[in-house]
Design brief:
This protein is an alpha+beta fold. The protein has one domain: 2,3-Dihydroxybiphenyl 1,2-Dioxygenase, domain 1. The protein contains four helices and eight strands, in the order βαββββαβββαα. The protein has an eight-stranded mixed β-barrel with strand order 1-4-3-2-6-7-8-5. A hairpin with a 5-residue loop joins strand 3 and strand 4. The termini are far apart.
Length: 166
């Protein structure tokens, strides 16, 4: 089944100062956030595999804001003229939905991997409007909820394999 509007669960924004952005979003809109997660994001792209340093927090309110600290020289930079990095949606069949978007002219540019399996967990697809579309396997929703609502790091492949601190 194709992605539907009610599958969209987050908007990822890139900010230069994570703590300042969280404070401002709290003051302006009353958003409250998960603890800041610090770790590494495994990505596979045309230039090979990379572990990108990651500092991120998620709003507890819906729609979720994934507030990511900018990492110059990586893919974690804001598109020109905006802070909107991606729109994330849950999908039941990551491979099928990724293939569907590619068929619509939205090529996969990056994806998650676990060992030799890729894409795994999530994919990023480019669009004509600058922001990426992130597809996330619905199988990871319980881990997302654990991180956001309980504030604890789940025993998930994309988080567990790489050292992280909070």
């Amino acid at each position: 089944m194709p992605v539907r509007p009610d599958d969209v669960y987050e908007f990822g924004i890139i900010v230069p100062d994570l703590e300042r952005a969280l404070e401002e979003l709290n003051r302006a809109f009353g958003y409250t956030f998960s603890p800041i997660f610090e770790g590494h994001l495994p990505l596979r792209g045309s230039e090979g595999d990379a572990l990108i340093p990651l500092r991120v927090a998620y709003s507890k309110q819906f729609p979720h804001l994934e507030v990511i600290e900018e990492r110059p020289g990586t893919y974690l930079v804001a598109p020109p003229g905006t802070s909107l990095h991606h729109i994330g949606a849950w999908v039941d069949d990551l491979d099928a939905e990724s293939t569907r978007l590619e068929g619509l002219g939205m090529p996969m540019t990056l994806c998650g991997f676990v060992g030799e399996k890729s894409p795994a967990l999530y994919t990023f697809h480019s669009t004509g409007f600058g922001a990426l579309l992130e597809l996330v396997s619905r199988e990871g929703k319980a881990d997302f909820d654990q991180l956001v609502f309980e504030g604890s790091i789940p025993e998930a492949p994309e988080l567990h394999q790489f050292p992280s601190t909070r």
